[in-house]
Amino acid sequence: MCNMGTVQSVDRAIQVLEIMARDGESGVTEIAVQLDVHKSTVSRLLASLEARALVEQNSERGKYRLGMGILRLAGATTARLDVVQEARPFAKALAAATGETVNVAVLADSAALYLDQVAGSSALQPHNWVGQRIPLHATSNGKVLLSGLDEDQLPSVLDPVLQRYTPATVTDVEELAAQVALVRTNGYSVVVDELEVGLTAVAAAIRNAHGDVVASMSVSGPTFRFGETQVRDAVEAVRAHAWEVCLRLGWRGPSPPARQGIDGTVREKSP
Questions:
Q1: Which of 66, 83, 108 delimits the end of a domain?
Q2: pTM score, whole prediction
Q3: Domain that holds residue 92
Q4: Distance of CA 169 to CAs 135, 163, 249, 271, Å?
Q5: Strands (E), the chain
Q6: Which region, left, alpha or beta, applies to residue 114 given φ > 0 means left and ψ of -120 to 50 means alpha?
Q7: Domain total for the chain?
Q8: Tens digits of per-residue pLDDT, 101-152?
Q9: Which among 32, 100, 152, 163 is least surrounded, fewest beta carbons within 10 Å?
Q10: How many helices and strands, by DSSP H and E, does the chain display?
Q11: Where does a domain end: 66, 91, 112?
Q12: 116 φ/ψ angles, rounded to the nearest 5 degrees
């Protein structure tokens, strides 16, 4: 549990970064005056920030400025915003074409973080997933995001014990790895009743210019509306729209492989 001293230190560190963002460069004394703290306190804060490359010292002037680590953090946020911006028109088109709810998600630590959602004409009071973190192992988006990792990376992002949400949830790690491998080959995942009974979702990978899986796009709705024909149509629609986003992000690799049919999909359940 964080104590008040820790919270205060975090707040002061943020203030230090804000001062440098405003002034460009600042010395220990200047920062101490603005924060109304002792110079030794500022020195400790700067040492911690410098260790993480969030600030750097100008060797000639002795003052501090924002470091390259800031660009790394900002780049991660910018990349996510780029995905949402580029995916938005295609998410809207997919929702219009299918009548179902469309979500765009990215990998965030050990979960799928939902960044955007568009409700289709058939979606009655859809659950708002934006900003929520959803289990990777029990969702179509999650399995697509897992497919962007090497097999030996899966244990690092999955909980040691996979939680069961419904009778259909896959909780065996080896079975999950096999499903993810299939998704990696096909570029999409079909999930039926795994996160919630009565919910089916189809998701496809979104790749950047380097071919990395940076996000996933899904269409989801009530399972009773997703028979074999509807699932097949949804797979084609999601793959086509996700592919357009890939092209907008600069991916020029091979097009998605031909769909292998409903028997070749990973059937699970999730948004």
A1: 66
A2: 0.67
A3: 72-264
A4: 11, 8, 33, 13
A5: 55-57, 64-66, 101-108, 111-118, 133-134, 188-192, 199-207, 213-222
A6: beta
A7: 2
A8: 999 999 988 889 998 899 888 766 566 778 888 999 999 999 999 999 988 8
A9: 152
A10: 8, 8
A11: 66
A12: -150, 155
